[in-house]
Amino acid sequence: MIQNPRRSHTRPKRSQMDWIALALGGLIGSLFGCLVLLVALGLWVYRPQIGPRPQVGASTPGAPDPGQEAGASTPGAAEPSQTSVAIPLPCQEPSLTLGTNRFRIATLQRLPDGSLPLSAAQPQVAYWVEGTSPHYVFALAATPENLILLLSAQSGETLTLQWADCSQETFVVRSLQPGLADLSPFLGQPTSGVTLAINDNAGTWVVLDSGWPEAPQTAEDATSQPQGVQAEILILETITSADSATVVQHFSLHNLGSTAISLTIDDIALSLGDGQPWPLSDVQPPLPQTLEAGASLDFWLAFPVPPPGVVVVKILDFSLELYF
Questions:
Q1: According to the model, what pLDDT value does residue 54 have?
Q2: Contact 95, 162 (CB under 8 A)
Q3: H or E element at residue 282
Q4: CA–CA gap between residue 291 and residue 267 (Å, rounded)
Q5: Cα torsion for 285, 289, 290, 292, to the nearest 10°?
Q6: Nearest Cα to 192, choosing from 166, 210, 167, 168?
Q7: Residues 136 and 208 sit within 8 Å (Cβ to Cβ)
Q8: What is the mean pLDDT of residues 231-253?
Q9: What is the rounded distance in angstroms from the CA atom of residue 97 to the CA atom of residue 110?
Q10: What's the sign of the alpha-carbon dihedral 49, 53, 55, 61?
């Protein structure tokens, strides 16, 4: 029986240099693989974000821009040719003040039978009986505090009406009349004044009547000498516009005389210390205004910021100095 001969495989022997080269090749390959892995990891970590790149200085849509305040104009937008200054008018709510007690004024309509619907009257409201003028009639809620206020009022005490346009009328208490059956004698008086009334628990009216303050007598009055305007002007707060270009000066005018005063735009003039005229930009409330005897008026003058020094303000017969 014939058998296939068995092939003999003999591996060649490697030299020492071959083994060293093989080891170095494996080491270099491992190092290269680690380097590739590190580069790939770095590219993944620091990969660029998807989307357009924000430009320098651009703010996130919908987020507030810390470099721009509310109300500031957008760069490149057209600037107004003239600065507009908002002159504050704080007297939007008319009020009545007796002593230290202040009441908000509301209008009250009489019922068809002439009575006053006061069942839901509020304690801090003075209800002006509609149609009563120039002698104003006000009804107060029948609270113990309001009743004590009227009963304790002294003759000569001041009663002030301040209207929504900031004008004021000042009266003085003249008489207290409790136990009146009705208010009809006071509802149609032709003379200026104020009547405060409360319907007490007995069904009668407690009435506090007031009128114009009397102007003080002087030596000139006794000799019938002609007089100038009898008034007092107070310099109140000064406001400067946000762009520092305009000044708004607050004044208060009080008529101390017994006749009305008319204030027109021609009664007001500004000048610098050297006599140079200075422009007037605006007046609020608008002129002309008429102040009855005892009345007061708060008003504001707006004008460009002057150079350092003095501004002379002429109002009626008065000259006032403002320093800047």
A1: 36
A2: yes
A3: strand 282-284
A4: 14
A5: 20
A6: 210
A7: no
A8: 87
A9: 23
A10: negative
Q: How many CB atoms lie within 10 A of CB 154?
A: 9
101-108/268-272 β-pairing? unpaired
Q: Where are the alpha helices (DSSP H) in 94-223?
A: 144-151, 184-187, 219-222
> The tokens of 293 are what?
């005897």
C-alpha torsion sign, points 300, 301, 302, 304: negative
3-state helix, strand, coil in the chain (%, to 5): 15, 35, 50
Q: Minimal CA–CA distance to 134: which of 206, 197, 212, 208?
A: 212
Take residue 144 and report the two structure tokens written for it. 């113990």
CA distance 213 to 258: 8
CB 208 within 8 A of CB 162: no
- Split at pLDDT 50, 70, 90, the class of 313 is very high
Helix (H, G, I), strand (E, B) or coil at 178: strand
Cα–Cα distance between 224 and 88 in angstroms, integer? 42
- The residue with tokens 């009022």 is 153
**Residue 162 near residue 97 (C-beta atoms within 8 A):** yes
Q: Which of 193, 298, 220 has the alpha carbon at shortest distance from 254? A: 298
Which range, 18-27, 49-58, 225-234, 312-321, has the best average confidence (pLDDT)?
Answer: 312-321
Residue 265 has pLDDT above 60, yes or no: yes
State percent of the chain over pLDDT 90.
29
Q: Are strands 193-199 and 135-139 parallel, antiparallel or unpaired?
A: parallel
